[in-house]
Amino acid sequence: MSVSELEADLSEDERAGLDLIRETGGIHQSDFWKELDISSRKGSRIADALEEADLIQREETVYNGHNTYYLEPAARDLDFTLLMAGDMLSPFIGEEEIDPQSDAFSQWLMNLAYEEY
Known about the structure:
This protein is an alpha+beta fold. It folds into two domains: about 80 residues, Orthogonal Bundle (Arc Repressor Mutant, subunit A); about 35 residues, no CATH class. It is built from five helices and five strands, in the order ααβααββββα. The radius of gyration is 19 Å and the shape is elongated. The relative contact order is 0.12.
């Protein structure tokens, strides 16, 4: 099932919850239900439904001294096109340090410039 098909089956509250998670890029569940102005129980049900549909990811965490979940958009929901130049990913994405003497960034910029024409 595609993302749009999954989203078509969402209730109005689930759609609002998904929109909030996408807009914030991630939110603690304890803030999620407050932002939506709903009960914590209803917030949990919405988060469960969105996770079950693979539209969000939920990770256990401690926030303000309380156990909660961190809700963030599913990875497939993210748009990486702004990090691409042709088939090259920006050299600044990743965990390795970039050698300032390297020409990786210059090559990436050149690919980006040529892509525009």
